[in-house]
Amino acid sequence: MEQPNLSEIQKLSGGDPVFEEKIFSVIKREFPVEKEQYFLNLAAGNTTKAAEDVHKLKHKIGFLGLEKGYNIATDYENHLKENSYELQEDFESILKVITDYLKTI
């Protein structure tokens, strides 16, 4: 499985450490909230709202350098819009990897 990294954030920043820290701070602050909201909407059976949550989360997945993870999130978002849970397990594995990664940084 892919591992999160800061390479995408570093590319976007052009080497500006202040910018990198701001982006990373936003991710660390927003990711847990958006993840929790995703699980709440999923538990409520609201696939439309869960798809919106996946949409928000997929951008953070991309910022953390997870190209395959971003593609899985995109596909899962589309499945949820069709009331399908295909790729749920794969997507939630990505969330777990990111959660663990954010605890180490």
TrEMBL record:
Annotated positions of the Phosphohistidine modification: 55
Keywords: Phosphoprotein
Classification via Gene3D superfamilies: HPT domain
The keyword ATP-binding appears for this protein: no
Residue ranges annotated for the HPt domain, each copy included: 16-105
Gene Ontology MF annotations: protein kinase activity
InterPro entries: HPT_dom_sf, Sig_transdc_His_kin_Hpt_dom
One GO term (biological process): phosphorelay signal transduction system
Protein name: HPt domain-containing protein
Lineage: Bacteria, Pseudomonadati, Bacteroidota, Flavobacteriia, Flavobacteriales
